[in-house]
């Protein structure tokens, strides 16, 4: 176990050269909008083919929230895409353990694969509505404190506000 280095980047996660790119997927694993749409568009049909195989073999009822699974990265400059399902934000129910689980499970899968570098989006902080500061706090705390052989975790934040919020939380 080494100490993980956390980096923040503003940009598009599909431009990253890393061992594993994390996708903020939904439990169907069949694609969607946001970062999920971008990853499938840029990575090409091989990713969806793998997702369909995983559904057929293991996740007929869908990948549960908080879990993670790996597929090929297709045409992306990475070896794997790790798909995780974030929780939809609820103002009345505390679902933060599920959001933390997305990062922990993604790192566990990355360790199984032997990945040393990983890129994360701000899981649940888009279509799933999680307030960005809270999503950033949970993401950074979980990645910092999870034992892993991954050496570098890069948070790739799409817009300036999300990047600035992560930077504030990191300090
Ligand atoms: N690179 C990096 N970050 C991105 C990119 C990109 N190319 N595109 C968007 N983001 P979201 P969620 C940011 O909505 O909230 C999908 O339909 C975005 O600005 O992608 O977990 C899935 O299929 C935000 O900061 O994921 C699910 O149904 C962050 O990525 C649902 O959306 C996450 O936003 C998941 O919603």
Tell me about this structure.
With 171 residues, the protein is of the alpha/beta class. It has one domain: Leucine Aminopeptidase, subunit E, domain 1 (3-Layer(aba) Sandwich), CATH 3.40.220. It is built from five helices and six strands; from the N terminus they run E-E-H-H-E-E-H-E-H-E-H. The protein has helices at residues 34-43, 45-57, 96-113, 132-145, 160-170; strands spanning 5-10, 20-25, 68-72, 80-85, 117-120, 152-157. It has a six-stranded mixed β-sheet with strand order 1-6-5-2-4-3, sandwiched between helices. It starts with a strand and ends with a helix. Residues 12-14, 24-26, 32-36, 38, 86, 121-128, 156, 158-159, 162 line the site of ligand AR6. It holds the Pfam family Macro. It comes from Streptomyces antibioticus. InterPro entries: Macro_dom, Macro_dom-like. Residues 1-171 form the Macro domain.
Write the layout of secondary structure elements.
Elements: E1 5-10, E2 20-25, H1 34-43, H2 45-57, E3 68-72, E4 80-85, H3 96-113, E5 117-120, H4 132-145, E6 152-157, H5 160-170
Parallel strand pairs: 1-6, 2-4, 2-5, 5-6
Antiparallel strand pairs: 3-4
Helix pairs in contact: 3-4, 4-5
The structure holds ligand AR6.
Residues 12-14, 24-26, 32-36, 38, 86, 121-128, 156, 158-159, 162 line the site of ligand AR6.
Pfam families: Macro
Domain Macro: 1-171
InterPro entries: Macro_dom, Macro_dom-like
